[in-house]
Predict the structure of Copper chaperone CopZ.
Amino acid sequence: MDVLVFKTSVASRKEASRVELLLTAMKDIRQYNFDLEDCDNILRVVSSGLEPQTISHALNMAGFECEELPY
C-alpha cells in the first residue's frame, strides 16, 4: 500500500464531499481523508498502485488545485 499526500484548494466540507464522489469511484483507493484544519488542506490517500497524477488530474478537472507533497 502507498500513502499519497496532497496539498489542495479544497477548503470546506461541502467541497470535500464533491471530491469524495470522485475518490470513491477510483477502485485502487483503499482509504482517504481530508485535513481541512491544516493550512494546506491536506488530502491523504491510501492506495495500491495508483499514480499521484491520477488524483491530481481528477481534482484539477473538478476545479480544485492539487499538488503532491513529499513526506
In short: The chain has one domain: 2-68.
